[in-house]
């Protein structure tokens, strides 16, 4: 197949298209080249990166190709074969500005090798720093191969703003990940520094989401479908229990175009606002189809933001569909209901004398809870020693809060989960700082299925994770083998743990030092080994918790900054009862 011929846009149209810099980092070049391959009708696209794409990007497709005679035009500014409608209303292709190839050619060395199926042999053209070569015969299969070398070598000022190759690779991977979700029928292979990140055949949408979100995550997501005034929404979204620490597993595709649109992101956030904790994010793969007239994609040179003619309509369509999905009774095995059924009644429980079994458990728990010193001290009765400002336990409320009375008559209420989380974190941090995090080898190594991009991210941090007591190895694309876990965590859910950590190591917009990431990772680990709210504690466990809190720095807040305990002094109680 050969596409329509390439022609120059009229001056008027050129002015209508805001002049913009398209290529600000390797990910942007990758995105433009893959979009060109999709616009050319490719059934199969391969992306090969070296040095995060700064050294080299190669995109190979089996699409319609560029005729030898049109190669010089392809790299000329504002030359496109795509814009049939110069009023910029009906835009069916991913590209239309005719800016990408010339911009890449101005910033790097760009080689195009292309062959329409009907043409005898392939031809090549090279542009480096704006200087264009002759068109010459070359070897090549039908389709196009675009090679970008030494991005920004001509503009050192630009190059200075690039992040590490690792961070640039991650951004480029994300760009391909999004495009692969938008075009499931096309096979995608992504290789970065010789590592195959994903290799997926042409498939239906559900299979593509499973391949790129990870099978386990995708399996827990629920299908949704809705329509309103010609706008159709379809896709998969997670139940509230599937929340993540970042927005990394959210994909929006509008009329076949992957977008990072603020309106859609906000609509999703609002839809989950009441069911997901602050700071957590839902998982979703959503696709919107709407009439071209109802959409302006020419808002941003990278074409990742949109303007909807009926923004309110789109917002309520998304929020309504998710709202209905969250109300559905969850039938999936093991998944907790999306909303708590009703507020549990307050019950005051008194510690029972531990049974034999419970004693064994309590002892193990105490060993974990208390620093060795504190463990040797028997729990004091309602103590008035200043060393025990949290006092002696009275009982538990709703299996969640420990009630205690201090020597000075103050009433102390401890959030057992928040408190234990802080204790575990401090203990891990102490071990970490002394370079002695205890790793507990697993008898049977666990295989964890992740999104390929997450697996890759964790493996890239293998050494750092080993310092946290977590030993992992590659186990095929998207899978990681866990050999050991931090001993302080005892028996964590390895899959949940790795997923959370993958998010901690995601490249954020600002460069974050490894030490800071490890520090945040410690907090994450702690969260995976903490007494749950809703667990009944024995008297010994409650005492041990209070004593350990007193012995631990920063025990007054959990790692999320929430208080771990409240204290009502005798004076405050007297004021409340009007005695003063
Ligand atoms: P745009 O995509 O906005 O048209 P580009 O600068 O990205 O602008 O590409 C210019 C032209 O080069 C395209 O319109 C298309 O005709 C041709 N082209 C670029 N890449 C490919 C490809 N992989 N296969 C076929 N044609 C291509
Ligand atoms: Mg293009």
Descriptive notes:
Helix 9 packs parallel to helix 10 (311-327) and helix 16 (494-504) runs antiparallel to helix 17. This protein is of the alpha+beta class and 580 residues long. 41% of the residues are buried. It has 19 helices and 26 strands. It is elongated and about 90 Å long. The longest helix has 18 residues, at 165-182. The termini are far apart. Adenosine-5'-diphosphate (ADP) is lined by residues 3, 6, 32, 36-37, 40, 61, 63-66, 74, 80-82, 95-101, 144.
Short structural description:
With 580 residues, this protein is an alpha+beta fold. The protein contains 19 helices and 26 strands. It binds adenosine-5'-diphosphate and magnesium ion (MG).
Gross morphology: elongated
Please estimate the helix content.
25-40%
Average pLDDT metric: 80
Radius of gyration: 29 Å
Fraction in beta strands: 15-25%
Poorly predicted runs of 5 or more residues: 15-20, 330-385
Instruction: Sketch the major β-sheet.
Output: 9 strands, mixed
What ions, cofactors and ligands are bound?
adenosine-5'-diphosphate, magnesium ion
Number of DSSP-assigned strands: 26
Q: Count of DSSP helices?
A: 19
The computed structural class is alpha+beta
Q: Could you give the distance between the termini?
A: 90 Å
Q: What descriptive keywords fit this protein?
A:
single chain; 580 residues; alpha+beta; 5-stranded mixed sheet; 19 helices; binds adenosine-5'-diphosphate; binds magnesium ion
């Amino acid at each position: 197949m050969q596409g329509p011929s390439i022609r120059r846009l009229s001056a008027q149209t050129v002015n209508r298209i805001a002049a913009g810099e398209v290529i600000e980092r390797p990910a942007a070049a990758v995105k433009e080249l893959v979009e060109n391959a999709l616009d050319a009708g490719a059934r199969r696209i391969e992306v090969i990166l070296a040095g995060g794409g700064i050294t080299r990007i190669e995109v190979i497709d089996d699409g319609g190709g560029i005729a030898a005679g049109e190669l010089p035009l392809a790299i000329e500014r504002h030359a496109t074969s795509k814009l049939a409608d110069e009023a910029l209303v009906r835009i069916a292709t991913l590209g239309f500005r005719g800016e990408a190839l010339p911009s890449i050619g101005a910033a790097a060395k760009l080689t195009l090798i292309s062959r329409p199926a009907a043409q005898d042999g392939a031809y090549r053209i090279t542009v480096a720093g704006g200087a264009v070569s002759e068109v010459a015969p070359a070897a090549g299969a039908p389709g196009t191969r675009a090679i970008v070398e030494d991005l920004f070598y001509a503009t050192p000022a630009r190059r200075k703003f690039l992040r590490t190759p690792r961070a640039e690779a991650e951004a480029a991977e994300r760009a391909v990940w999004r495009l692969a979700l938008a075009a499931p029928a096309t096979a995608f292979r992504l290789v970065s520094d010789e590592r195959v990140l994903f290799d997926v055949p042409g498939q239906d949408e559900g299979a593509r989401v499973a391949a790129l979100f990870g099978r386990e995550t995708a399996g827990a997501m629920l299908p949704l479908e809705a329509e309103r005034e010609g706008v159709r929404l379809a896709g998969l979204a997670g139940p509230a229990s599937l929340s993540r620490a970042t927005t990394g597993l959210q994909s929006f595709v509008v009329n076949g175009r992957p977008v990072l649109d603020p309106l859609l992101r906000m609509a999703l956030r609002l839809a989950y606002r009441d069911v997901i904790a602050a700071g957590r994010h839902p998982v979703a793969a959503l696709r919107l189809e709407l009439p071209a007239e109802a959409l302006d994609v020419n808002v941003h040179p990278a074409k990742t933001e949109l303007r909807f003619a009926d923004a309110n309509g789109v917002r309520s369509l998304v929020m309504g569909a998710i709202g209905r999905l969250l109300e559905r009774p969850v039938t999936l095995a093991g998944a907790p209901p999306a909303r708590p059924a009703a507020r549990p009644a307050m019950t005051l429980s008194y510690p029972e004398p531990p049974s034999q079994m419970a004693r064994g458990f309590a002892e193990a728990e105490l060993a974990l809870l208390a620093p060795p010193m504190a463990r040797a001290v028997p729990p004091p009765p309602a103590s008035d020693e200043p060393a025990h400002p949290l006092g002696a336990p009275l009982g538990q409320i709703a299996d969640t809060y420990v009630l205690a009375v201090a020597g000075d008559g103050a009433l102390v209420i401890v959030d057992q989960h928040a408190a234990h989380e802080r204790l575990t974190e401090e203990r891990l941090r102490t071990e970490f700082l002394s370079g002695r995090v205890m790793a507990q080898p697993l008898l049977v190594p666990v295989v964890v299925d992740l999104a390929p991009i997450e697996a890759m991210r964790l493996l890239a941090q293998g050494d750092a994770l080993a310092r946290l007591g977590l030993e992992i190895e590659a186990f095929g694309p998207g899978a990681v083998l866990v050999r050991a876990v931090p001993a302080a965590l005892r028996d964590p859910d390895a899959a949940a743990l790795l997923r959370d950590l993958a998010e901690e190591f995601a490249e954020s917009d600002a460069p974050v030092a490894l030490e800071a990431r490890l520090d945040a990772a410690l907090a994450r680990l702690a969260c995976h080994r903490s007494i749950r709210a809703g667990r009944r504690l024995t008297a010994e466990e409650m005492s041990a918790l209070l004593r350990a809190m007193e012995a631990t720095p920063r025990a007054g807040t959990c790692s999320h900054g929430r208080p771990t305990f409240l204290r009502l002094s005798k004076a405050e109680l007297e004021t409340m009862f009007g005695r003063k």
